[in-house]
Design brief:
By secondary structure, the chain is mostly helical. It is 86% helix and 0% strand. Helix 5 (124-139) packs parallel to helix 7, helix 12 (306-313) crosses helix 13 (322-347) and helix 14 runs antiparallel to helix 15. The chain starts with a helix and ends with a helix.
Length: 410
């Protein structure tokens, strides 16, 4: 198949299917999250968001990038049974240590979140198992199964959380519902994979190879998650839960833009490793152009419509989130482009590029969030997020362009 034919097939089939699944999952996730927020109010919403933000950071730190490594090596054509057995060998060594570490970290949160956080930390193993299984499906090119499993993993937690809120509209029951939903998503992701031989003499060697690539990539994942969740995590410490709930709801509304980037990023992760160097270069800028044309326009539209969106979706109790929502829509558009760029770098075996870019953005978030929040409230946090994402994207584009130019010169 020629490269032009590949791009046409990708656009008509894989890209469209992935985008539809992503939009279906995210639209329903947003509906369930908004309905839950209406039921429990901004204060309880802030407590739930704070725990989930810290949980997401811990899950990324503890993942060691093995999911990215699985996708990369399987997409390159590595034999499946030994590679999966090596990943499972690593998984067993992750679970206990990360859960214990997570429980200890949650003891540092404000007292009203400590018990909720420690209990929810027990669900961290589910995050690792589901991410491994999804990575295997993606690396094997089983996009239909990957779409279905990923949709289940995305939808079941908010569905269970909303159900719990209907029964008992408090933060604790909602988090229990999220945990039950995570278990259901993990079971579905595992069921999508056929059973394979889990025993291989090369498991320790293959495991070390997966870990070597994974750790390099994990740094990028940790920095990316920090850029995405660190603002809410820090705000749980310095602001009342009501303010955190308003800001988290604004983030949830703006997240409607992320499926564009995730759809193209998924295609890049599974397609780029098998292409030649010249074809990778052409595909890289195709992915960027495709995502930029959609994300930036929708981000601008979301910013202009922020006031009616907040009023319709969240209600009068969340009016304080209007300004933050208007700022976060363009920020979410840039974040979608960052996801594309990071996936492209991983697919081209350049995991250090997004690491450096994400580090620059993280520094802006880490040092800017507290002064901005104290001076401008949650709108200040939104401006810091936008500045962080723009810096990250600019650095990523610059490094990709320079690397391509050096490759062409040689």
């Amino acid at each position: 198949m020629s490269f032009s034919s590949f791009l046409a097939t990708l656009s008509r089939r894989s890209g469209v299917r992935i985008a539809l699944y992503n939009y279906f999952a995210l639209a329903l996730t947003a509906i369930f999250a908004i309905a839950t927020a209406r039921l429990i109010g901004p204060s309880a919403r802030g407590s739930v968001s704070g725990v989930l933000a810290w949980w997401a950071l811990l899950a990324e730190v503890g993942s060691l990038g093995i999911a990215f490594s699985l996708t990369y090596y399987l997409a390159k054509g590595d034999p499946y049974p030994p590679t999966r057995a090596a990943a499972d060998w690593l998984l067993r060594r992750q679970v206990a240590a990360t859960s214990l570490f997570g429980a200890l970290i949650f003891t540092l949160l404000p007292s009203q979140l400590q018990v909720l956080g420690i209990l929810y930390a027990l669900t961290l193993p589910l995050a690792f198992i589901s991410s491994y299984r999804l990575a295997e499906l993606l690396g094997l090119g089983r996009l239909r199964d990957w779409n279905q499993a990923r949709t289940a993993c995305a939808l079941l937690p908010p569905i269970a959380g909303l159900t719990a809120a209907l029964v008992a509209p408090r933060a604790g029951p909602v988090l229990i519902g999220y945990g039950i939903g995570s278990l259901g998503g993990t079971v579905i992701a595992a069921a999508k994979l056929a059973s394979v031989d889990r025993f291989s003499a090369s498991v320790p060697i293959a495991g070390r190879r997966l870990l070597s690539y994974g750790v390099r990539t994990a740094v990028t994942g940790v920095l990316s998650s920090s850029n995405r969740y660190l603002d809410i995590a820090i705000m749980t410490i310095v602001l009342p839960s009501v303010s955190v709930g308003l800001y988290a709801s604004a983030v949830a509304l703006s997240a409607i833009l992320l499926p564009f980037g995730r759809a193209i990023a998924a295609s890049a992760s599974s397609r780029l490793p098998a292409l030649s160097t010249s074809a990778q270069q052409a595909a890289t800028w195709h992915y960027y152009r495709q995502s930029a044309a959609i994300c930036l326009l929708t981000g601008l539209a979301g910013a202009l419509l922020a006031r009616p969106l907040v009023a319709i979706a969240l209600g009068n109790s969340y009016r304080g989130a209007t300004t933050a929502t208007a700022i976060l829509f363009p920020a979410a558009a840039v974040l979608a482009l960052i996801e594309v760029g990071s996936a492209v770098s991983r697919g081209r075996n350049r995991p250090s590029q997004p690491t450096v870019a994400q580090l620059l953005g993280l520094l802006i978030t880490a040092f800017g969030i507290i002064p901005a929040v104290k001076a401008f409230g949650i709108a200040g946090a939104a401006w810091v997020s936008l500045a962080s994402y723009v810096t990250t994207l600019f650095a990523l584009l610059l490094m990709t362009h320079r690397a391509d130019r050096r490759a062409n010169a040689s």
